[in-house]
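Ticket #4471: complex job returned nothing on first submit. Input attached below:
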Amino acid sequence: MASTLRMLSILAALLYFSGTTAACPGELRVVVVVILATDQHEKIDPRLTEIAAEVKKREPTLTGFEFARMINQPVKVGQRETVKLIEDKTLTVTLEKGPDADDKVRLTVRPPTLGEITYTCKTDKYLPIVTRHITKDKSRLIVAVMVKSGSTK
Amino acid sequence: MTDPLRPPTPRPELLAAYIDGELDPATAARVEAWLLTDPHACELLDEQYLLSRSHREFWRAVSPPEPSTARWNHLFNQIDKRLQQPPASPAQPLPCRHTPPPTPARRWSFTTSVSLAIALALLVIVTTWRQQRPERDLLPLQSPLAIPVVETFAVLSESEIEINSVHAQDGSALVVGDSVLRQPLVLANIHDFALDSMQCDEDGLLPNVPMSNGSMRPMILAPMDSVRD
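Support reply: We reran it on our side without changes. The output follows.
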């Protein structure tokens, strides 16, 4: 009897987690990576090598890039979601249009210190957004936004 | 005071020896002369006679029977035979008691005793072992036909879970999860991106979107000349 209850509990937990992690029909996953760039050091996270190179082309003073946080936010088409980034800063994201034949989606984002930006981008590719927000430890906030493919059921 | 002409009074032990006939003739004559002259000695003699008779009866009752002459002769003959035998050689081993071989009945009894002892020892060991086992081992045995349920902790695979939010310093602690934390970020190129619309911020500034240079990846860059926390 106890073993049966335990097995049922595990099954319920699996169903619960599968329900919370898997996207519902018509729902996509927006991945937001929080990056802190600084001129205080030159350490670059290996995962941020490409972003660091591109940012340094525009902002040569930023030499250090730190991977701070990753948010995986499910969004439905036409639904507006708010993502907490760091400290008290948030990013609002709206999935305007789902993937087309070229796996491109349209998003509207509002990063900290910036107005709303609407763009179309291919899935699984990141768009870096360098904000003007400076954190308490004198780092500049950068967010990279990506929509995952294959998350629609 | 004693009379020097009177013979000395014999000791009472002489009267006892006189009654038992153990005195030599000279001493016995001297005791008889004393009895004739001393009336008190006659009273002593009568008392000693009664005492000696009771002693004799007592001795007769407790004395072992006297061996007969034939018995004495048989005993003396055996002693003579032993003395005539040659002495034993010191090199020869001393005679020992002969142990007869065990009979089948004795062998069966020995085997049974050993078996019972082993069985008793095993019983004690098993009983002690079962008392020291934990309670869960003493549960009633299940039917051999019952299928044992082996509980394992199922671990989700990479495709079964997605991490909703995690700090970068905690990402290395994840066993499974989103591969975003483990793979380099792939940026969109100029063909993957199209800017649809853009609004000014609160200061009325528009971010830079450098896309003219083909070697650069699309990026939205807020100008720093109006930095405001």
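The longest helix of chain A spans residues 2-21. Closing as resolved unless it happens again.
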